[in-house]
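The following record pairs a protein chain with its ligand, calcium ion.
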Amino acid sequence: MSRPCNEAYNINKCDGNPCKNGGTCNNNKVAFTCSCAVGWTGTFCEVESAARCPIGWDHHGNSCYLFSKDTQSWNNSSDSCASVGASLVAIESQTEQTFIQNRLRHEFASFMWWLGGNDQFVSTDQTWYWVQTEQKINSGYTDWHRKEPDNPGQQHCLAMRKDFNYQWCDDYCPELHAYICEMTLGDLDFIG
Ligand SMILES: [Ca+2]
Ligand SMILES: [Ca+2]
């Protein structure tokens, strides 16, 4: 857009809203500025920006991850993730599993980490589901350790273990472990 240099100060620079993609125009005396919606940047919010994860969260693919060293039961871990607009992680590809394995390799806070799988979540027939997506775990990507799950009917919650090279296992849900929250970048506007 062109702005003539003799433009009067009392003209509302925001007329016609020059800010694109849901941006809000702020009318100043000499110019306007755009406050851009999440995911947009540039003078007119015309440039798509990489959405950013909250401070303390790791970015991978289209998600942000919180590796919480706070040890909790599975239920409390799940609630903690929900309280920040996330959920316990659903690992749905080798790429995602590898990212988490590499991230935990240098993390000594906990021997085990809770994941967002549970076999009593949808039904009590010991079918494993991701709570985040409500998809059957064993219908998609899995990385169970070869000896796991080894306690059907007793261990209803999904975890990963350091001595299994962070492959998956079932465990007793009240056990206290560190946990991993995941939120997708599309959910970020919920937390501002
Ligand atoms: Ca995921
Ligand atoms: Ca087990």
